[in-house]
Design a protein that fits this description.
This protein is of the alpha+beta class. The protein has helices spanning 2-20, 24-28, 59-69; strands at 31-40, 53-57, 81-95, 99-112, 123-136, 139-149. A hairpin with a 2-residue loop joins strand 5 and strand 6. It is globular, with a radius of gyration of 16 Å.
Length: 163
């Protein structure tokens, strides 16, 4: 079990490193074919089929988000929204050799290059995250990721395509 804990933590650290470096296409490759990526709006335990979400996406929908974000008409991304993730309190809730359920806390800092003035402070988004990881070949992939922003029931700043 200790080895799986270490592997899960290393996976999460690599995952957020891809996001912080804006390597969204590489991040997309971490998803299984049937993955769900979910950022709830408000109630983190609400049914995403019945309530609005900030993001509720399958891999095909993630592809669509990335295509739009790479478009020259994606005005929200100019200048690009960058992030710095801090991952902590990683807890294996269930684990075997092929599936792992992981809970962790994240603090996501958002900023834009050359835009840190008094009227544009750094955005800080604390979140509780749930993952279901599945072993594929010799590594782990994301079958489910939920990023429950603690401020998700209020005003949410502009977000990068994937947080």
């Amino acid at each position: 079990m200790a080895m799986i804990q270490t592997e899960a933590e290393a996976f999460l650290f690599r995952e957020v490193r891809l996001l912080d470096r804006r390597r969204f296409r590489d991040w997309r490759q971490l998803l299984t074919d049937d993955a769900i990526y979910w950022v709830p709006n408000g109630d983190p335990d609400g049914d995403p089929q019945l309530h609005c979400s900030i993001v509720y996406a399958t891999p095909a929908m993630v592809e669509d988000r990335l295509e739009r974000a790479e478009s020259p008409f994606y005005w929200v991304g100019d200048p690009p929204i960058r992030s710095v993730h801090t991952v902590s309190n990683v807890l294996l809730e269930q684990a075997d050799e092929t599936h792992v359920e992981v809970a962790c806390n994240q603090v996501i800092y958002l900023y834009r290059d050359n835009d840190q003035r008094r009227d544009q402070p750094l955005d800080v988004l604390p979140a509780q995250c749930d993952y279901r990881l599945r072993r594929v070949g010799d590594g782990w992939r994301i079958a489910y990721k939920k990023v429950a922003l603690l401020t998700g029931d209020g005003l949410v700043p502009l977000l990068p395509p994937i947080i």
